[in-house]
Amino acid sequence: MSVVQFMVSLDLTVVNVGLPRIASGLGFSEVGLTWVIHAYALTFGGLLLLGGKIADRYGHKRVMLLGLGLFGLASLVGGLAQAPGQLVAARAAQGVGAAAVAPAALALLASTFPGGKERVRAFGIWSAVNASGGAVGVLAGGLLTQYAGWQWVMYINLPMAALALALAWRGIAQDTPAAHRGRPDVLGAVLATAGAALLVFGVVRTDQHPWTSPTTVITLVVAVALLAGFIQVERTTKRDPLIRLGLFANRSVAGANVFMLLFGGAMASALYFVSLYLQRVLGGSPARSGAEFLPFMVGVVVGSTLAVKFGYKFAPRNMLITGGTLAALGYGWFGLMRADGSFLVDVLGPSILASVGIGLCLAPAVSIATGGVAPHEAGTASGMLNSTRQMGASLGLAALGTAAAARSGDSETPRALSDGYALGMTAGAAILVVGVLVALFVLPRPVRRDAGEEAAG
Hints:
Layout: H1 2-17, H2 19-26, H3 35-58, H4 60-79, H5 84-112, H6 116-147, H7 152-155, H8 157-171, H9 186-204, H10 214-236, H11 251-281, H12 286-311, H13 316-334, H14 343-370, H15 378-408, H16 414-441, H17 451-456
Helix pairs in contact: 1-5, 1-6, 1-8, 3-4, 3-5, 3-9, 3-15, 4-5, 4-8, 5-15, 6-12, 6-14, 9-10, 9-15, 11-12, 11-14, 11-15, 11-16, 12-14, 13-14, 13-16, 15-16
């Protein structure tokens, strides 16, 4: 299960480092380039709920194997792309595969380790491997892009998917599908994905159509209508709904998902803006930029490891508050980046601070969101958490990327570009501050247990 997550995590960061070469190779515009990220995040996030439900119904191992096959095939198609639309379509197909893989793997993890110290350790290992995939991705992405071509940031997934398939086939026992009430709600998944995609589309096109233009207003109204239709379908469908709306009555589930929505938007901005800043402003090569991005990813691993160590002593809520605060401070530091800056001052320092904070948040957020959820809803709960993170990544990057492009204007001078990227990172810091406030005032305070209860636990 950790190897599967390693592959999904590697794919995200390996593509980010290659973005400048992808843009020049296929002819992406500055705003259009964000769709390499959006296409994956939207299908991944929009279909995760359906993926979790299908995994619960038909068996987590079976669904995970099918998802791995699709992920590998989409990676092959992406590497062969000759036009922007072809790559975006391949990235969307990768998202569909990941939407099947991720909730199934996380549900198997949650059901295998239902509580106690073993659960803390298991989720800590999972989050550390997740972060390790990101670290390997930035380094491999830089080397592959510079010395083999950007296409290899897609081809690298082929051996990873094959290895994950082999390990999952032999190393994971066949699980018994949960009892189900009806067929999965495909209509709800389509409405949610289409509504979110149209919302992002409306936001990123504000560089061509102002917010008050009929095109933008109509696009956003239709997007909201689709999302409202999704909620209505979940309330009235006779099929097995993607979300049991009663889950949101649980403050832990609701608070963790709101936190992850904000967290996803902020993290996507770091991966995107810092990668572009290293190459387009500081003038680094892809290989050098990948190496310079490595401290950020290693910091996430360190933070995840600390989360395991301190998870035995401190409540997950307190870990979110601490980690979110550190990350917000790091993003604020990133917001000071300059056109005549340097790696040591403008990237390394804030990378360490922000990444350790991010690592401290990963495992506690998962533990909070899935804790207290019935076993038959584990896939749904994990899918919902991953969905909110990916949707947050796409919506956050759409808003921040558009704002950064507006600040830079038509100029591509180092000063104009750095001003735009700095604005995006400052906005990311503000988003993280809101996330900390959610953890403070929405998540329930931890309940003290007496010595007898501690011993029993």
